[in-house]
Amino acid sequence: MPANEQTWRDSKLMHTVFAVSAVVMLLTTVWMMGDDNDRPWKDYQRKFNSLDLWSTQARITEQKSSEYEKKLEDLEQAVKDAQTHFTADDRAASDEFVRLDKQFTDEMARLVKDSNRDFPVTRDSAAADQIPKLAASILETSDQATKLAASLAEMKDPEAQESRAKLSELNESVRKSRAKLLDLMNDVIARYSFREDHFTQETKNQKAELSAAQSQFDQAVGQNPPGQTPQSRQKELVRRQDAVTAASHEADVSTALMQKAASQRKEMERVRGIVTAEEDKATKAIADHQLKVKLLTATADERASNIGKELVQLPVLDAFNSPLKIDNRWLPELPWNNNFKQVARFDRCGTCHMGMTKTQPGSAVEPAYPAAQPLKVTLSTPAKAPNSEAVDLESVYGFTLAPRGALNADDVTIFAVYPRTLAAAAGLLGGDIVVAVNDAPVLRSEQVRQYLLESVKWGQPFTLSIRRGMPHPYASHPRLDLFLGSLSPHPVDKFGCSICHQGQGSETAFKWATHTPNDLIQAKTWTREHDWFRNENWAWPMFPKRFVESGCLKCHHDIVDLEPSVKYPDPPAPKLIAGYETIRRYGCFGCHEINGFAGADKRIGPDLRLEPNYYAAAEQLEADPGLAKLDKQAPAWARDVEERDDAYARRRLYELVAADSQKAKAAQSDKSAPKPALRADSHRLEAVLKDVDIPGTQRKVGPSLRHVGSKLSYEFLVSWITNPKNFRPDTRMPRFFGLWDHLEGAGLAESQRLEPIEIRALAEYLLKASQPFEYVVPPKGVEPANESDKDAIARGKKVFETRGCLACHKHVDFPQAKETQGPDLSRIGAKLAKLTANNQHGREWLYSWVRQPNRYHLRTFMPNLFLEPVKDATGKMTDPADDVTVYLMNSQQGWKPEATLPRQLTDDDEQALTDLALMYLSDKFPVATAKKYLYDGIPANQGFDVLGDESVIVNPEQPPSGTGAGAKAAGGTDGADESPEHKQKRLARTMEYVGRRSIGKFGCFGCHDIPGYEDAKTIGTGLADWGRKDPSRLAFEEVIEYVTHHPNGLHPNGIPAAAKSAAESTAKTDASAAAKPPAAKAAAAEEQPELSLDDLPTDIGFFMNELLEEDRTGFLWQKLRAPRSYDFRKTGERSYNVRLRMPQFTFAVDPKQNQEKIEQVMTFVLGLVSEPPPAAYLAQPAPNQAAIVAGRKVIEKFNCTGCHTLEMDRWLIRYKPEDYGKPSKVVDYDFDVPHFSAKEVADSQMIDRRGDMKATLIGMPLLSDRDGKPLRVDEDGAPIEAGDTTSKAFYQFMLFQSTLVDGLPRLVGAQNLRIAEDQIIRQYPPLGGDLARMLFPIVVADEVKINPAARSQATQAWGWVPPPLVGEGRKVQTDWLHNFLMDPFPIRPAVVLRMPKFNMSSDEASALVHYFAAHDGAEYPYEFDSRSRADHIEQMETTHPKYLESGLAIVTDNNYCVKCHLIGDFSPGGSLRAMGPRLDRVHSRLRPDYLERWIGDPVRILPYTGMPVNIPPDKGVDQKLFAGSSQDQLNAVVDLLANFDRLAEGQLSIKSRVKPAAPAPAAGTPATPAKTEDKTPKKGDDTDSKEP
Amino acid sequence: MLFATLDPDINVESIAGGLGLFYLLLAAMNGVTALHLWRKQNRPQAALIWTVVALVFVVMAPLAMSGDPNWVPQRPYWLKELSMLLSGKTGAVVYSLGTTALLVALYFGRRFFVQPLVAWTILNGSLVLMGLCAVDRNFQTIVTKPDNVPIVALVFLLGFFTWLATAKAVKNDDRIRQGLPPLEKLDDEKVLVWPDLVYTELICMIAITALLLVWAILLKAPLEKPSNPFQTPNPSKAPWYFLGLQEMLVYFDPWYAGVVLPSLVIFGLMAIPFLDFNKLGNGYYTIEQRKFSYLVFQLGFLELWVTLIILGTFLRGPNWNFFSPMEHWDPHKVEVLNNKDLSYMFWVDLMGKALPHAPTGSGAGTELLSILKREWLGIFGLAVYFIALPPLMATTIFRKVFVKMGFLRYMLMSNLLLLMLTLPIKMVLRWLFNLKYIVHIDEYFLNF
Fold it and tell me: What is the ipTM of this complex?
């Protein structure tokens, strides 16, 4: 060891290194803390706080307008005046004050003395004694002043001046003395307060003593110490009891004293209050006036920054209640599923999005900071230049500019907008950023002043371009009526944010919260500004804005509850609903099951499944001749299942089939067992007929193909299957064949070779399997018209137009019809014609279909329209059904099938057919066997039952024994020595086999009812949780290569390219790609311009990027856009039959619309996540709401809204007070007087900052009877011609619901409101009724032909078209409506068409009935009718004999009901248009309440009705008819109509019809049992069932 | 990116800045070296060369910073193709054999490689190669993954320390040959605990803490998605230090690769002090005096441990498939895995018979016999390897060692050595003959 002090390393160097490393560590530690402290959310919070402060200050400024200041001055003056106000009453009060003081002091002194309290009660005589004198002197001075003031008016100027000085002197003196007086009084009162305080304290102390004593007593009772004698114990208890009593007494005394003191003080204060009354009132007025500003100022102070707040924002110190803090929202009931553990949800979104829940002052739902958007407003200028010199924006326009912008200091921002000024009228708001004035950009505030004040033409308005609202994260939620608010259905405290939006709610940094950009531009911006990246590690990235509605599906499993409703007229989820609608109509669920249930009682999402195929199974069974052999009843049961969905019959059928199936199994193993009756093929129906736990509800969307042979020809089928769009461009049937854009080389060649075979095979199979159909025979007496009969065509066209066809169908002759529930019929004739489509039975079929659609297809949505023969004007019988058939047969548009495939196969085709069949067959048999089977058929007796598709190649004949067969089987089917007969049979078998397999492969049965496929299961991927599907489980294959490098990849199926026009690319795909040889395609590939994602349209770029990122969104998009493209370059390695099968859907002919629809469908599918939250969060509507939801589904299913209006138009209007004048006076029955609550009236009278009032109108604008469009009129009520832009336009609005305008009630039917176009803020369209509106001008025009005067009463024509069903629930009886829906009959003779009969189940009808009742708040499912109680009528009879008969007298009086209405066997005759419904059936149809209101004043219910008021409330009808008040008369008529059956019963005598029977057997004599028992109950049954 | 005419595997946007800095750093590094050579060592010619190198880097830096794919220095495409060619088909063979060859070359050429300028050139070369390859999307993704950064550091640190030790050893060997004491003996004085030990440690602690802080701030913890039993990560990788073990699983049954071998590694390391009888080399670096120990260590640590870690980290991708350095980690890549057991080769391929199987339902004894019959060759081979080989070696190559160590120690040493060598042997057998298991006794889960 070295002895010296030398160290190994240089210690100086070591110190330096140490110093440096220590400094480095210090710096890194500081860095770490800084990094930790530097959170982006803090900046957002600071900025939002300053923004909020800015807004508050703006509002303070707005409040403190010059008007405000002036009023404040006035109020302050009033206080001053009150302070110099002193009257004789005040003096008297002063004297009273002193008197009371003396009295009270004595009283109190006595009391204190009596209660032995040691408390001196003295009087403040020093103060009190001065009071009377002072009061007297004040009064004197005050009187002088009053006199002087009175005389002042008459004085001349110099004198007046002097007097004025004197007066103010006097007033001042009064003010001072009065103040002194009040001080003295206060001194006196102070003593009373002191006394009160003393006794209050004393009482408290005494009560404490009492409690202690009580507790000691209680303890003594409970304890029993040893050694204590009962006596001493008793003594002890008594002692304690005495102590309690004493303490209680003391407490009572003190309480009494305290109460006395308090009452004395109050009394003294009251007397003082008499003196100060005036002043108090004035002071309060000031306080009230200042209250709002004070509150705002307080808020502003709270929000303003100060040193203390700054200090606690510093690092470390921020642990102590920093104003910047994370907003934690703990939602343990809505956990995240982290696979192994449910983790409570923490939503911290509010940390940055601080303004999310803020509303505008005074509104519960208007967002305070709407998302930024540009706006243009028109700012009027004063007509003349303001005369004052110093003009500013505030005095001229009523707004001020802020010194600095709210978020960016440089923004030219409007600060305060004063109410009822030009700026307010223009709709400007504080915080609006002025971007341009009359398109001249604005950069500085001075420019605005310059434009608006200097370079202004007075009287001419300015256009201000403004930017309103805030960017995120400062913006408020756009739908605070639906979300976040405590009154909304989704309060933020219960739901948080991420349950709907997803994303990582617990994160506070932008990039980690997994925001999802809506497009690539946003993605780039975010990456630049927030380091945003695609976070693959969070399984629930936020929905991009375009899919934000997907989140709704998680809880809203019924979907239709997301449609606009009365409560939420703004559609809550329009895109999702549109997607649902598309899915529902295109029947995606035919292939892709959307199962909303995981087990019978667990709901996991929307449920869109096909209904059980009972009816098809029954039909198939019926076609089996063995059915009748099983049971005589069986065919009848089958029909019951088909027509009524009868569960009993179905179970019986099931049992039969199951038993027979067992028999078949037994027969197979045991040859001697009895043979089954049914065909082997029918046994599989056993599975279909079984009960299902929760059956699906969706019908197959395509037409039935069960009897397709009776409808279509081979030629048409082939053309249709090849490309449905060729015949009907907007068809919903997707395209299966010719989708070759992605194919190349051998794969393409294979498709070109085999697809025609598949098409032929499909057509052949469908025709072969088609079951016989009996066409409807035209009724006797009418001759089928000639197809070219012009009259018949014209009649048919009219029928088509007016009988409701247009409610569901489109036709080129009627461009106004839009609805597409049914197909476009413009070319229907070509499909069914003999000439074009070689269809032998087309016309017969069409006639049958029109007459009775469900004869052909049991589950069709097409209703029976009851087109019965009618007599025309000339008395000739015509058959409208035949006419419409002829008309439709002539609707051809010159269409001819484009794709034709001859039935006769060429040699190549035969080879292709065999190859294809072999491909299928070799799945099940070794290739050699398969070949052999194909050649000779499967021998019938080869030992096993051939089931399924292969059963069609079973050959019952023995194969020709010998050499040929086997050899050929091995060598293929060259057919060298095959007999023509054998060949024909072989090909037929093969064709049928391929047809069957193809149907199975493409899943045609998902949409169509096809015989033989009753038990087929959906072929596609289930979608119930597709929105959660892991992208790694999606087969992207080579699609990215396809879309990036193949010329067809980017623009398949008509999506507009950047380089090419949409038309070109559509043409490219439509003209089948086969036309283009592969070489040309390759050339096209070279021409393809280099594109980047940025060159694409925004939406396509977004989805393309999603695809490139291998996200499920992109997958779905491409799948919907070009489903087969995933086969790109995969055809080589895959067999032809395992290629993708999804067809190409075209949701809209226009590519852009198609793209939109794809996005809508995606919104729906991405929302299917099968992650239901706890039940409390699921959308579980209240019973009424649930009935509405269930009903809406049925309404959509049967397109009720095609004809009927279910909700009327709803208009929001704004108007100046008194714009609408006063409503005219009407006399009404009491029950018709509308009632509005005080709040509603007050709301209606509220004038907003613009100086406007608002009202909501429900009803409909009057339509023009010429074109059916809303009628625009000028000021004088004359219609405005098209093209006239100068006249100010008005609409006539017919109210359907009484409302308040200007605080005054406007009644239904009283008077149409004339509404200026610019008064309308918002128009919500009606729900349904398109057909009614379409028919309206037509029926008017038709009527005018007969009766030229009809045009003047055009509104009555609303009574001739399908009626609006508003209020239907309160109108009709539930069981009547149910029966009517199940079996409709004509009600109104005036209506040009009648309610058709839908193939609706009883459940569906009930749902509709409940819908109406629930919607209108009526009773359901049953209602009690008090008017038809027997004792009601009896009671009425006592006061009014012959009650019902008298009522009948009114009804049958020529002046009243029978003038128009049919009743019993009576008909009023005359025009049908003027005829009313039958009155004898009213009792079963209408609810009596409604009846009363209706007869009382019909227009209060239906403003357009032609029915007059028959029993006026003021006059009534002739007393001779019915003696009593008008209300009595009305009651009588209503009672009569409600009890018409009772009255009618009285007219029918049964007794006279029954022959007297043999006397009954005496008692004890046994009756002949069999006979009587057999008969009696039967009779009873009959009568029972007839009675109601 | 979409439809880009350029190589789609190139990604420069996100790393341009970092890459520029990297080249600047290289320039500075070489500049300092040049300065050092010129001023301290007075070698102006060498200094000039490194100045030129530094200047090249100075030019490369702004090119890299431009972020323009046309300008950023990048790996030539053939490099990728070469690496694909070398290892695309053969999997880990080229890599493993290559590292062995490299080790051999380094051993024999150590005198050349330890020259500072050679080492410096190699360092420069490898850094430039890394820079050039960093523009490759796949390379970049893998190398810059926060949990792989330590492995990258490990590569360079290990290189440096290996170089340092070898350089000193070479010098010492020269000195010893000349009869001089090793370098370490020259400074054989004792030093003070304070400040020479504790103070230094303190400084190191502070520096390391600072480094870790900076690291933690700059590279966030690479957390991934919540674990999901239905969707396991692909590839599922062990922590980096276990990746060598995981690699062994490719060749062995888990009981051996996962249990026996790791235990033996620990056991063997513990046994070293008892086995090592060579007093030479204590306290100084030498190779010549401890050739055997040196080689065993280099083989066991560098090749069988570290290179396997690197292999597992950088070259094993989805499905534990082998991916070349710049190959896209495509989860759909499928490798042929038609491996055969030795018994299968013998019975089926060679003898043309079916594998002997005990008839179903036969007793344990019969079954055992049939297993023995089936696997006799493998069992025999293993017996030869473990039982016959140690005595054989003792009488041949390890004769001197055996004498010095004595029976017990020798047997222990030779068996540990043989066990260690099972890994490379099995690897070679797998590559050459697609050998799956030498002994395959599924009945008892006993495979080797």
Answer: 0.86
